[in-house]
Amino acid sequence: MLTSIARTFPFIWPYRRRLMVSVFFALAVGLLWGTNLSISYPVFEVLLGDQNMDQHALEEIAKLEADKEKHRQDIAELHEEMELAGSSRAQSRIESEIKVNTDELSETETQLAWQRWLLAHVYKHLSEDRFSAFAAIMGVLLVATVLKGICVFIQEYLVGGVVQLSIMSIRKRLFRNTLALDYQSLSAEGTSELTSRFTYDMDVLTNGLYLLGGKVIREPIKAVVCLSGALWINWRLTVLSFIIAPLAGIVFYRFGRTLKKASHRSIESMARMYKVIGETFDSLKVVMAFNGQRAQRRRFHHENKTFFEKSMKLVKIDALTSPTTEFLGLVAVSLGLFPAVYLVLSGNESIWGIRLANGPMTLPELALLYSFLVGISDPARKLSSIYAKLKRASAAADRIFTFMDRRSAVVETRQPKQLPRHSVSIEFNDLNFAYHSKAEHTPPLALREINMSVMAGETIAVVGSNGSGKSTLINLLPRFFDPDHGSVMVDGIDIRDVRLADLRAQIGVVTQETLLFDETIESNIRYGCPGATDAEVEQAARQAHVMEFLAKLPAGMQTRVGEKGCRLSGGQRQRIALARAILRNPSILILDEATSAIDSHSELLIHETLEEFTTGRTTFIITHSLGQSMLNLVSRIAVMDHGQLTAMGTHEELLQECDLYRKLHHVQSQQRTALQVVGGYSEENVISLDNGAADEEDGRGPVGTGPRRTTRTPPLSQDSAHVGDHPLKGPLRKKAH
Are residues 203 and 326 in the same domain? Predict the structure, then answer.
């Protein structure tokens, strides 16, 4: 159990001084706990005896002095007998008796010194009246209890601070290591699984560390103090009580193994439930549009029920732990108490010839021994109640640190080369790539034998149906993942030989699903270049036509966009994303379906921006459709099919030489004609290459069942924030680079 939790110790070490102070207060709690229990002895003496405490102490001292003198005489006689003994066996017996008497003499002297100290420092302050003495003893008990409570508070507070600081450091390291992983690994893990590690797993570990620094330190100290007291009263009976210890160890070892397995399953079940919740609310429009509430409820009910079943296994084991501990504790106390009661009632020192006491036990001694034995069992009971929580914390630590130990599949070179600003070419050489997973030992290739050369400043459109590999191919350029074979070269330098930060500093990316942070519009634009001036941010916003709708927002640039930009329209979000890429001033621009999910007005504005901004930059446009405005931007078109580059050339060349491209163009021409007849809508030379997406999945290729039905926003429909706006006038100002 501690092996996993021990991984947290390097994070706790910086706060060791605070932790040591908390241990000091835990020691104080243990001593005060023992003090409270030891008060049972004077209470019994006052209530049951007919003497005051001073008289009792003097009587005890006299008795101990007599015992001391007797032991000395016995030892002296044994030494004389040793001199007369002839055989070695007799000498051995006598030596053994001398040793026993010497030990008893030492014990008697200790008790004598203790009684004298009590007489001089405690009993003399007590009243001779028995009731007044009892009241004074109870006052001491009250003060000790208050002090113990204060020490518990201070210890818990100090431990809480250490735990929170340590968890903050662990969370920070986990976040750093997670961001350092490659895109493929993180995508395979899933957002919900990652979130559960930062939330549920971290909370479980936090609770475990609270217990580890609090009760796990404090309760054993209390038990040790009580054990010391019990051994001091009668070590033989105390040892007899602990005969049950090996059995208890075996029982809790079995409990522990079962608990850790059950905890792992419970945490994994919780992660799956998080996944269902996340998918449901992230896809809320789809759920509502397709009346999928019932299906999502069924999915959630299944995972919720599974989590309940896994959790109930933990509850069952946890529920068994406490009564089992109480039973074992009662057996342990009874093993010491029954012989002790017999010795008190009979006045003997031994049972069945086995000596269990140095002298006849009194009732106050029996009460004190019982108090200390119960004082040992109480911490043991509390520790057993937190045993299950520590096992859950251990399982959570396993998940956290196992993930923290993972290393990115995209490895940075130790001796990076310098990468000047891209100005020559980009080459994809003999590329093979497959998405690897634990479920598949030999996954199918997503890219196969790709060879492509792109000159600096060219604009390349990469087209193909869903699953053809176009996004996968371009995602190799910023090293979201590395090819299994082959290389990507920028200006003759393998991108694996340069620093990731240097490579990605030259790349701007605009994706189909526009990703904005819940910050202001200015912060989202500045994300591409944190050191940019306000004037540069405004210029980028103007180039991307962001300023058009900013005038209609009350806070302007300081408007918060909401989670994932939910307060803005799709077109507005896309223009902010484009402004972010413009501010970065990249030498390489990647547009991944950047205009496929926005209105026609925003698409027109973005095309105008791209016509100016792509000049002098190497641009890759991943798209399903090519309108005339897009064709005016591109230098060449790369056609992807089943992970292979089937053709590359201009639009006219591909119509003549590429059967696949020609068929797709023919299908889209029919679709365009149908749209004109049915909807009275025309868009010049729209070429969609997204039909056959379903066919791609079952291996029949992108051509087959006819055109995919698409819906275009009519030309008069604009972004809700732009109704009545005039088209942008005048040429765009070109950014210096």
Answer: yes
